[in-house]
Amino acid sequence: MPMTLAEKIIARASGRSAVSPGEIVTARVDLAMIHDSGGPRRVEPILKRLGVGLFDRSKVVLISDHFVPGDDEAGREILDLTRRWAAEKQVAFYDGVGICHVVLPERGHLKPGMFVVGGDSHSPTGGAFGAYMFGVGATEMAGVLATGEIWIRVPETILIEWRGRLGDGIAAKDIMLALCGRLGMDGGRYQAVQYTGEAIESLGMQERMTLSNMAAELGGQTGLIAPDATTAAYIREAGGEPGDISDWQGDADAAIAEHHVLDAAALQPQVAAPHSPANAADVDAYPDTPVDVAYIGACTGAKYVDLERAARILRGRKVASGVQLLVAPASRRDQERAAADGIMAVFEEAGAKVLTNACGICAGYGNARLGEDITCISSTARNFKGRMGAASSRVYLASPFTVAASAVAGRIADPRPMLAEGGPA
Ligand SMILES: CC(C)[C@H](C(=O)O)[C@@H](O)C(=O)O
């Protein structure tokens, strides 16, 4: 029976030769990822009450990223509890070296065909590696950690095809905001979104990760991209073993629930107005919108590729007076690589403030939270009311190119003229 990539992975994980959409099966997980916020402090009381331990400590990865660096007493206690649990349970633990969705693949934990759960809503990021990865709440996660199993209703696949190539100054974030605007935050119907087409194939892994991650903003359960040579090369470099990528391709004649075709070459820089990623429009819909804060951060907005893009705009330029540019590189490795390439120096010279490698204000953590009435343009994934700070703050979402250009202009700005101009001599 022809199967989609999602169906092939779920069939393998549930020990079946084939599955079809709508069936409910029990699958064995290959890996469970948890973080300091929804992890030990939430799951341990449940495991204790049940009197059970971990199903397999070698299949659990713990990453502290939400309360890092521990700006207050409560946060520091949560980080301590997380560290104690990691030591006691002897699981792989990454402590304060970056955001879980970036660190997990960076350290070689993902490969095509895996069935993975994460204790965070942006866990679909793993789909960029051809893994079926999705987010679950802490109670569900406790069940997974105890048994190594989870039930799943086999999803339909919604294919999103981007034909042609993206123009200069256009990024994966623009693709996702455009999709949120077009399909809405429930367009993914908790099914398997799969991205395909020339524009997707031409993207590097970090850009693909942004697409898969933000399948959550589309309401999809996961956001798959079929593995190719780019995927295999990334995994090898991360110290993993990609396996045979030809095993993890959907069949050409598999049934697809929806097929959306979009033109990458026509895509303009996107900006999503407060308070939803679905409020996306072309950048020129915001002709006179001053900003107080520009934030380059989070798993979808501050990976190496994002830093590199922001630096293309900022090189030789200064942040506008009265604007604060905050940069929180998504992982320590990405920050180190950016420093080696002179990118961190560009931020410093432009007048940016560099923050810790953590989730930070994207999810409302830490001291840099937005104050009353602040207008922020942010390279993060969500702009729900009050998420990044005060309920009266307003957050516009955009690509790192557009956030950087807006920091320089002091108002929402199209990055393309600055790219075309190059930096001042
Ligand atoms: C705190 C955490 C559980 C939450 C999530 O699951 O998404 C956070 O990471 C977010 O981005 O909103």
TrEMBL record:
Keywords: 4Fe-4S, Iron, Iron-sulfur, Lyase, Metal-binding. Signal peptide: none annotated. Residues 77-410 form the Aconitase/3-isopropylmalate dehydratase large subunit alpha/beta/alpha domain. It holds the Pfam family Aconitase. The keyword Ribosomal protein does not apply. It comes from the Bacteria. It comes from Microbaculum marinisediminis. SUPFAM superfamilies: Aconitase iron-sulfur domain. PANTHER family: HOMOACONITASE, MITOCHONDRIAL, HOMOACONITASE, MITOCHONDRIAL-RELATED. GO terms for molecular function: 3-isopropylmalate dehydratase activity; 4 iron, 4 sulfur cluster binding; metal ion binding. Heterodimer of LeuC and LeuD. This is 3-isopropylmalate dehydratase large subunit. One of its GO terms (biological process) is L-leucine biosynthetic process.
